[in-house]
Amino acid sequence: MIKEPKKRKDLPLTPLSCPTVGSMGKTGSWRTFRPEVDYSKCTKCTLCWIDCPDAAITRREDDSPEIDYDYCKGCGICANECPTKAIRMKREED
Amino acid sequence: MEQVIIDTANHIAGHAARAARVKVVAAYPITPQTTIVEKIADFVESGEMDAEYIRVESEHSAMVACIGAAATGVRTFTATSAHGLALMHETLHWASGSRLPIVMAVVNRAMGAPWSIWPDLADSLSQRDTGWIQFYCADSQEVFDTIIQAYKLCEDEKVFLPAMVCLEGFILSHTYSPAKIPDQEKIDAYLPPYRCGWALDVDHPYSHANLVSPEWYMEFRYMIQEAMNNAKQIIPQIDKEYGKLFGLQHGGLIEKYKCEDAELILLTMGTIGSEAKLTVDKMRREGQKVGSARIRVYRPFPAEEIVKLAENSQMLATIDRHISFGMEGFLASETKAALFNRADRPPLAGFIAGLGGRDVTAETIEKIAKKSLKYATDGKVENDPIWVDLKE
């Protein structure tokens, strides 16, 4: 584990950071549009899972997608890529 | 077994990458560099070199491939020239900021426009502030030795910076000359495999060179400056050690030739420094006390050694194969900067010569030296750079 530096001599030569879940907080709150999956249309092709730039989609045992709304920023790439239009983007309500 | 080969400086640079047991080479061709990566391709194809050879789509990608490879803790090499180096510019900062000891041969070529394939130092000197160590070579033996020494230096934990080994296009790159290739076992003993303190590792994932707030950014810059200062101490030691093992030395930071009692010292870089020795010999035969100081390492700049040289001389002349438009050559500027706080500094005349591959012969240098001696006698030096052999 890398510790927060206090002095110059504590610094590594170049900044290093370890991946952690949600180091920027719950980025799902940035979302304007929310992807919703219509599982009756889903063919389990996993394209949305592959293309999600935030790894906010996980694969269920049967290969159908599950969206993690804590971290999905609502970019809409999954909806755009879904070949059967099984994902729709809906405006978040205030 | 040690052997002497007769080949071009570019091929000899390829031999150096092979002898250094480089593990990843990223290659994109550009004149006059191309035959370096061609030679390495031959070595990889024949099995004489055990390396990944990545053919990339641009120089920008070549450097990024080296950065990625070096970050996994392996020794990397690439080579480029002129516009290829300019295209790499952004990634050069990433390499030094990530503290990766990449070694790159830069075959100096003048920048367009107008197009030129012949040498001057504008390409690599334009990369002065990227945090790369810069060596300038005067012959093909020095190219070989400096590439090996550059890995030794850059992989030192007190340094961990990338380095350019610069050689002038055609004057060296495509010119055949003999070079000694030391015994491989001796090179292996001198240059053990690279050990990186923070190699990328899938089992312990972390990323490099991330966003740093104003609270810490300056400290990372300061550490690069410290590493450069360390390099300044280590380079002469490395040169000495290499000399003991292989019988070849190149002067550390500055190759000094008959400077001890010199009234005039000619400061040069690259092959002009070889030619200047001929001038020194001729003028000394005629009774004039001239010496030559070839700046072998331009970054870190050997300011302290220049101060020492200046202490015993009455006149300095810089010969720049380079012009910083609107000012003068970098060697002139930086030599002056090194001496500015010395009350007893000698006057300095800055000459611009050999741009775009124009020959700078011993006779040219003699003209420069005589003009400089006249300035010294008259006690009056031109402040503007003096363009040598400029057509009316």
What attributes does this structure have?
heterodimer; A: 94 residues; alpha+beta; Alpha-Beta Plaits; two-stranded antiparallel ribbon; 2 helices; 11% helix; elongated; B: 392 residues; alpha/beta; Rossmann fold; 7-stranded mixed beta sheet; 6-stranded mixed beta sheet; 12 helices
How would you characterize the overall build of this protein?
The complex is a heterodimer of chains A (about 90) and B (about 400). By secondary structure, chain A is of the alpha+beta class. Chain A has a single domain, classed as 2-Layer Sandwich (Alpha-Beta Plaits). Chain A is about 10% helix and about 20% strand. Chain A has two helices and five strands. Chain A has helices spanning about 45-50, 75-80, and strands at about 15, 35, 55-60, 65, 85-90. In chain A, the strands form two sheets. Chain A has a two-stranded antiparallel sheet. In chain A, a hairpin with a 5-residue loop joins strand 3 and strand 4 (about 65). Chain A is elongated and about 60 Å long. The mean pLDDT of chain A is about 90. Chain B is an alpha/beta fold. Chain B has two domains: about 5-245, 3-Layer(aba) Sandwich (Rossmann fold); about 255-385, Rossmann fold, CATH 3.40.50.920. Chain B is about 40% helix and about 20% strand. Chain B contains twelve helices and 16 strands. Chain B has helices at about 10-20, 35-45, 60-70, 80-95, 120-125, 140-155, 185-190, 215-245, 270-285, 305-310, 330-340, 360-380; strands at about 5-10, 25, 50-55, 75-80, 105-110, 135, 165-170, 175-180, 205-210, 255, 265-270, 290-295, 295-300, 315-320, 350, 385. In chain B, the strands form three sheets. Chain B has a seven-stranded mixed sheet, sandwiched between helices. In chain B, helix 6 packs across helix 8. Chain B is globular and about 70 Å long. The termini of chain B are far apart. The model of chain B has no long low-confidence stretch (mean pLDDT about 95). At the A-B interface, strand 1 of A face strand 9 and helix 8 of B.
